[in-house]
């Protein structure tokens, strides 16, 4: 009888703890777009990180804009690297691009992780989202996913001096260099696609859809969440055997 009463007392406490844990997870997704996946058959701990909306740099974007804040992402990537219980990282991408320096910093951090990493492009991975998508060990894109490759934009008032144009050219070369090092596309082909004048009516650049990104060598494979997770499990097992 006493044991029964104890069990009945524990149930509300367990239920409360469960609800608090779920609320904490929901808040984590809402605030940072991150979640830990650990209730899987493979018994692997996967850190899910989403890159959505516009990538925010040193200046705050309007409150109504969906953003990925690099001051959230960079510390979290450092924590993932330092956490021995995390087996791998799954990157979900649907971004219009954004701040070049912030986006490139995120891409460099992801590329330098010792953990297996896989990216999945949903919707789009445009502009500075391209190096982020290619920064992982392996990359996927859904059939309807898109990638837009275009030159570095000049926003606001720009002083029309040769040094200014040289600066933007150096920045563009850094982006092209990073992408070419992390995929099968050459620097020459990337620059050709960036400066394409025949696709966008009022702009330079190239739009690639699904399979085209694989044919161009930017992305490894067309697939969805199932394929991305299976590949990540495979990479984790390979890393453990090594």
Mean pLDDT reading: 82
> Judging from the principal axes of the Cα atoms, what is the shape?
globular
Helix content percent band? 40-55%
Unreliable parts: none
Number of helices: 8
Q: Tell me the β content.
A: 15-25%
Taking Cα atoms only, what radius of gyration do you get, to the nearest Å? 21 Å
Tell me the distance between the termini: 55 Å
Helix-and-strand structural type: alpha/beta
Number of strands: 9
Q: H/E element string? A: HEEEHEHEHEEHHEHEH
Biggest sheet, open or closed, and with what strands and sense? 7 strands, mixed
Architecture overview:
By secondary structure, the chain is α/β, with parallel strands linked by helices. The chain is 46% helix and 21% strand. The protein contains eight helices and nine strands. The protein has helices at 2-32, 70-82, 100-111, 129-134, 162-181, 187-194, 211-215, 225-241, and strands at 34-37, 46-56, 67-69, 88-98, 117-125, 138-141, 146-149, 206-209, 221-222. Strands 1, 2, 3, 4, 5, 6 and 9 form a seven-stranded mixed beta sheet that branches. It has a two-stranded antiparallel ribbon with strand order 7-8. α2 runs parallel beside α3 (100-111). The longest helix is centred in the first third of the chain and has 31 residues, at 2-32. The protein is globular, with a radius of gyration of 21 Å. 33% of the residues are buried.
List keywords for this structure.
alpha/beta, seven-stranded mixed beta sheet, two-stranded antiparallel sheet, 8 helices
SSE blueprint:
Blueprint: H1 2-32, E1 34-37, E2 46-56, E3 67-69, H2 70-82, E4 88-98, H3 100-111, E5 117-125, H4 129-134, E6 138-141, E7 146-149, H5 162-181, H6 187-194, E8 206-209, H7 211-215, E9 221-222, H8 225-241
Parallel strand pairs: 2-3, 2-4, 4-5, 5-6, 6-9
Antiparallel strand pairs: 1-2, 7-8
Helix pairs in contact: 2-3
């Amino acid at each position: 009888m006493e044991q029964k009463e104890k069990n009945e007392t524990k149930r509300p406490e367990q239920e409360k703890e469960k609800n608090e844990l779920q609320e904490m997870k929901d808040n984590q997704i809402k605030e940072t777009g991150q979640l830990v996946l650990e209730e899987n058959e493979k018994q692997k701990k996967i850190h899910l990180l989403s890159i959505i909306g516009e990538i925010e740099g040193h200046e705050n974007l309007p409150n109504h804009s969906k953003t990925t804040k690099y001051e959230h992402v960079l510390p979290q990537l450092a924590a993932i690297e330092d956490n021995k219980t995390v087996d791998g990282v799954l990157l979900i991408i649907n971004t219009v691009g954004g701040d070049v320096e912030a986006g490139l910093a995120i891409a460099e951090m992801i590329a330098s992780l010792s953990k297996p990493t896989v990216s999945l492009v949903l919707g789009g991975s445009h502009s500075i989202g391209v190096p982020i998508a290619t920064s992982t060990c392996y990359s996927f894109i859904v059939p309807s996913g898109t990638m837009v490759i275009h030159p570095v934009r000049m926003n606001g008032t720009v002083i029309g001096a040769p040094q200014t144009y040289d600066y933007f050219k150096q920045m563009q070369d850094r982006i092209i260099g990073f992408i070419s090092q992390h995929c099968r596309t050459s620097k020459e082909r990337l620059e050709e696609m960036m400066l394409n004048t025949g696709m966008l009516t009022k702009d330079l650049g190239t739009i690639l859809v699904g399979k085209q990104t694989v044919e161009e060598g930017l992305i490894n494979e067309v697939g969805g969440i199932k394929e991305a997770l299976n590949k990540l499990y495979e990479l984790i097992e390979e890393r453990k055997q090594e």
